[in-house]
Design a protein that fits this description.
The structure holds four protein chains of four kinds. Chain A has 13 helices and no strands. Chain A is mainly α. In chain A, helix 2 crosses helix 3, helix 9 runs antiparallel to helix 11 and helix 9 runs antiparallel to helix 13. Chain C is an alpha+beta fold. Helix content of chain C is 49%, strand content 13%. Chain C has 14 helices and eight strands. Chain C has a three-stranded antiparallel beta sheet. In chain C, strands 6-7-8 form a three-stranded antiparallel beta sheet. Chain C has a two-stranded antiparallel sheet with strand order 4-5. The longest helix of chain C has 29 residues. Chain D is of the alpha/beta class. The chains are: A mainly alpha, B alpha/beta, C alpha+beta, D alpha/beta. At the B-C interface, helix 3 of B face helix 1 and helix 5 of C.
Chain lengths: 347, 168, 368, 157
């Protein structure tokens, strides 16, 4: 069942209603935005619950059980509770910076979805520089973390913010370079065209030996760091920095950081799916189902990391990026270029 | 919060408004009760039992309770362990840093009333209700994880009886 | 350009901090992420146990001392009972000695499991914490069927033990020991070879043996620095001379070695318990001790090997009194916290956590 | 060395500076007659090859109701023996010498004695409050005659 048909039908209905074209366009865009936003909010809530369940089962527990069937209402309850909490602004805080930080984090997390294809034709806007747009937008998260660290006027938060800035800048490089390797092969920056170039399973970039798997692994490691998750969760290292950059945030502002974190996890998984795992491509099932299956599988991998590994120290983290991942990804990029140029393996 | 407090007053003026406020009340209380994030505050023996309650066999997470390290994000202090005179101002500070609505569980004899350190000790605060308002007392030295769970369920019952009008 | 102007700043770590194992506070002077100076501030759990003991009779002291070191409450019982027995020259029946050894070693395993859990938690791995507590619950079940308590046992009394073990204790204990070795293998699989864990612990917080001895560091923390010194063998108390066990020693004295020593110690303790339940004789479980136990005048310092190092109790009896004149307690953590400022200098803030975890510091032992 | 040899060796070595006490039940227990001699005594027992008391187990003060005693429990890791010694002093002007130079671990034990008993420690260098609250002003709580308004003694049964 392809959803795109339904949307097309609705859009045509709107176009036939006699409204001016500008309005049709606008209403279409707003509707798409609202739909994507709602979907992602749901996904984020689901992911929080899922993470708790996954962690619980890895740890031989049950996780939330009493709030609905297997605790399915748990995150809804959490969100409603956070809504009721008092909103505290520390007296020493830098007010505007403190106020805007979670909002920027939230918006940046959601904005990336403009160019992510959820299925064949299910994309808000197919920009011809799609992947560049995503890389640019996700970088906003760092700014928000820095702002949160600075604005809270708390030493732990500041340390957390500084760490996250250093970390994300370091890992942005291998991540982008590993993405570049794919782009070299696909010959396009548009997400849709990247997906279309991997129609059959052996065309998925993860299976294009030898550069594909290396780029994929580099990407996954860098993405874990980008989303501040264990083993790279030093910005909010609970045992060192209490809660890192969000130590002073309460109530809804904290919820925004919390949701943004999970949306980011979904984003990097979705990008990973699109770039390496063939996006919506797959037999029998509708395209959007394939997309979600692959993305959730990747999300599961991230959760698996989180509940297995200890945390790296901040300098070791930097060393790992600059001394290992960056050279590796650049070498890989050259390899991909050579392969593309020579025409080997170019199936 | 002011808006929510006044909401019932306005709502009652409309037909069916009462129903809306009651169900709103119900939903809010339910969500608050089933998502009590507790502050990681353990000082002595009870902290080990608190950890054991969070671990696999008893599993706090079943009740939707997870720990937060920052007082800003937690709803509940489980004061686990002896509070000494040196520690008492810190407990008050942590309580003040928490966002409303906030709750306190006094876990163990020491926090209820001095416990085994009531006599002959010059350093122990005899009960934390001198310092912060306490919602649930759990006696025991240390209380078993089952009694801690029971205490938390009691707190949930208390939360579920709240009224929107009482907020503030 | 004259270079960037940097400034030292102070971070207050604790007393309420997720990884200070209770309520220890560090005032850290930092230069960026590097620690220049660390000043421990203690006393947030000072409960005046020693003062309380001065106004309690000898049997009454034992439940109070359970709270001295709650992770290994059996040891606290044992060290005080030992002191009182030495004062009065009491002989403890054979079976009671065996029961004591079984309980002490099981308690050592339980304590090391708490250490294992909190260490992994401090390094950011949450799952091993729950694995450690899973096995600990099995041990607590054994304690519970013996004395009815999970944490503060009041089991080892002056002259013997409080109760005999129920008949189902030994089969259950055997079952636990049979699976426990595999469980330790599991723990090792999760952490020992984990590259992140290794890189976080190797060459961090090295204690040179001379410095360690001078500061009074003892137990596993000292054995990791290459000093083969275990009171169970070198100053035998109870009946430890009857069992065969190894004393794990490592040479580097860094966090990783302390980790390895403790992991191996769990296996050795299991070995001791296995031997003890094979050999345990029938008989009395307590010597005749009157409720008005009055040891003659004298003073004694008894010490045992606890999971955190040497645990000692100095007891002075005024003679012809039911109450001790003075009880002074010594815990391994007291000295291990004292050496912390030396160890953390020049390390990162994340290493403070790792070092503290590897020394297995627990605050009631420090503050009393 | 066993107990008797150790006792004899110590008595021979230090002659009239120390005295064997009857109160020690298990290990040899000595009284150091001259408080000023403490530091040299400690240095001697640490540096003597046969004694090699390199490990300081514990330092504790005692208020007997008539006087202060400061008890040192030392052990040797190499020789695997242990013995104790103590100092006796009056309430007035109670003072001990710091032994930090010999055993670095003595620092906190001495600080504790100063804080809880009010026995002054010479050459310590860092006598500040650490177990009691920073604003404590009720004297030295471990003394037998100490009392405070909210301090309750357990009633006799």
């Amino acid at each position: 069942m392809e959803l795109v048909g339904i949307f097309k039908y609705l859009y045509e209905l709107l176009a036939d209603s006699g409204l001016p074209e500008v309005w049709v366009e606008l209403i279409g865009l707003v509707a798409a935005a609202v739909m994507v936003f709602g979907l992602l909010a749901l996904i984020a809530l689901f992911l929080v619950w899922w993470e708790r369940k996954v962690s619980a089962h890895i740890q031989q527990r049950f996780g939330p059980m009493l709030t609905g069937w297997h605790g399915w209402r748990q995150t809804i309850a959490d969100a409603l509770k956070l809504l009721q909490k008092e909103d505290i602004t520390p007296t020493t805080a830098d007010r505007p910076v403190y106020y805007w930080a979670p909002i920027i984090a939230f918006v940046a997390a959601f904005a990336a979805y403009v160019v992510i294809p959820f299925g064949e034709g299910l994309i808000v806007a197919d920009l011809n520089v799609g992947i560049l747009f995503i890389v640019a937008i996700t970088t906003f998260t760092i700014i928000s973390l820095l702002m949160a660290g600075w604005g809270s006027n708390n030493k732990y938060a500041l340390l957390g913010g500084m760490r996250s800035a250093a970390q994300v800048v370091s890992y942005e490089v291998p991540m982008v370079v590993s993405i570049l390797a794919v782009i070299v092969f696909a010959g396009s920056l548009s997400m849709v065209q990247i997906v279309e170039s991997q129609e059959l399973i052996y065309q998925w970039y993860i299976f294009r030996l030898p550069f594909g798997p290396i780029a994929f692994v580099t990407y996954i490691i860098a993405a874990t760091a980008e989303t501040n998750r264990t083993p790279f969760d030093i910005p909010e290292a609970e045992q060192e920095l209490v809660a890192g950059f969000n130590v002073e945030y309460s109530g809804m502002k904290f919820a925004m950081f919390f949701l943004a974190e999970f949306v980011n996890v979904f984003t990097v998984s979705a990008i990973g799916t699109t770039l390496f795992l063939g996006g919506w491509q797959g037999p029998w099932l509708p395209s959007w189902v394939w997309f979600f299956i692959k993305t959730f599988a990747l999300v599961f991998v991230f959760m698996w990391f989180r509940w297995t590994y200890p945390r790296l120290r901040v300098d070791q983290l930097m060393e790992f990026s600059w001394k290992f991942l960056v050279p590796l990804s650049f070498a890989n990029l050259i390899l991909a270029g050579l392969m593309k140029y020579s025409g080997w393996f170019n199936w | 919060m002011g808006l929510i407090k006044k909401l019932p007053v306005y709502m009652e003026k409309f037909p069916g408004g009462g129903l809306v406020t009651t169900s709103l009340n119900y939903v809010f209380n339910q969500s608050q009760a089933s998502s009590l994030w507790y502050l990681l505050f353990g000082t002595a023996c009870c902290a080990i039992e608190l950890m054991a309650t969070g671990a696999s066999r008893y599993d706090f997470d079943r009740l939707g309770m997870i720990f937060r390290a920052s007082p800003r994000q937690s709803d509940l202090i489980i004061a686990a362990g002896t509070i000494t005179k040196k520690m008492a101002p810190r407990l008050r500070l942590l309580y003040d840093q928490m966002a409303e609505p906030r709750y306190v569980i006094a876990m163990g004899g020491c926090t209820v009333g001095g416990g085994p350190f009531y006599y002959d000790s010059y350093a122990v605060e005899k009960g934390i209700d001198h310092i912060v308002p306490v919602d649930v007392y759990i006696p025991g030295c240390p209380p078993r994880p089952e009694s801690l769970l029971e205490g938390c369920i009691t707190l949930q019952k208390k939360i579920k009886q709240q009224k929107l009008e009482d907020w503030g | 350009m004259g270079g960037l102007r940097t400034e030292e700043f102070q971070v207050n770590m604790g007393p309420h901090h997720p990884s200070t194992h209770g309520v220890c506070r560090f005032i850290l002077t930092m230069d960026g992420e590097v620690i220049v100076r660390a000043v421990p501030v203690i006393g947030y759990l000072h409960r005046a146990l020693e003062k309380i003991c001065e106004n309690r009779t000898y049997p009454q002291c034992i439940p109070v001392l359970d709270r001295f070191e709650y992770c290994t409450a059996m040891s606290c019982n044992q060290v005080f009972a030992l002191a009182a027995e030495k004062l009065a020259g009491l002989e403890v029946p054979e079976r009671a000695e065996y029961l004591r050894v079984i309980m002490l070693e099981l308690n050592r395993i339980a304590s090391h499991l708490i250490w294992f859990g909190t260490t992994s938690l401090d390094l950011g791995a949450i799952t091993p914490f729950l694995y450690g507590f899973r096995e600990r619950e099995d041990i607590l079940d054994l304690f519970e069927m013996t004395c009815g308590q999970r944490l503060t046992y009041n089991y080892i009394r002056v002259g013997g033990v409080a109760k005999d073990i129920p008949p189902e204790f030994i089969p259950k204990c055997r079952k636990f020991l049979d699976t426990f070795d595999h469980k330790v293998d599991d723990y090792e699989r999760v952490l020992t070879e984990n590259p992140i864990f290794v890189v976080r612990n190797k060459d961090i917080g090295i204690i040179p043996p001379e410095l360690g001895i001078s500061y009074g560091v003892s137990g596993p923390s000292l054995r990791a620095s290459g000093v083969r010194y275990d009171l169970r063998r070198d100053d035998p108390y109870s009946i430890y001379d009857r069992f065969k066990f190894n004393i794990p020693v490592r040479q580097n004295g860094d966090c990783y070695d302390r980790y390895m020593v403790r992991i191996q110690e769990m296996r050795e303790s299991a070995k001791i318990v296995r031997q003890a339940i094979e050999q345990i004789p029938e008989g009395e479980i307590t010597a005749k001790v009157s409720i008005n136990f009055k040891p003659p005048a004298g003073e004694v310092y008894s010490r045992i090997e606890n999971s955190r190092g040497e645990m000692g109790a100095y007891v002075q009896s005024p003679g012809n009194s039911k109450k001790p004149l003075r009880v002074k307690l010594r815990g391994g953590s007291y000295n291990q916290l004292q050496i912390m400022p030396e160890l953390v200098k020049g390390h990162k803030i994340a290493d403070v956590v790792a070092i503290m975890a590897s020394l297995d510091i627990i605050m009631p032992e420090v503050d009393r | 060395m066993n107990r008797d040899e150790l006792t004899q060796y110590l008595l021979d070595k230090f002659q009239d500076k120390i005295e064997l006490l009857e109160t020690g039940r298990v290990e040899p227990f000595f009284l150091i007659k001259d408080a000023d001699y403490l530091k040299s005594f400690c240095r001697e027992i640490k540096e003597d090859i046969k004694l090699a008391a390199d490990f300081l187990c514990n330092i504790g003060a005692v208020d007997t109701g008539e006087r202060f005693e400061v008890v040192y429990n030392v052990a040797s890791i190499r020789k695997k023996h242990r013995f104790d010694f103590k100092l006796v002093m009056d309430y007035e002007g109670a003072e001990i010498d710091s032994v930090q130079e010999i055993w670095a671990g003595a620092n906190w034990y001495e600080r504790e004695i100063w804080e809880l008993y009010g026995i002054n420690v010479k050459n310590h260098g860092n006598l500040t409050r650490f177990l009691l609250p920073d604003d404590w002003d009720q004297g030295f709580p471990m003394r037998k005659d100490w009392d405070a308004p909210d301090f309750k003694r357990m009633p006799e049964v």
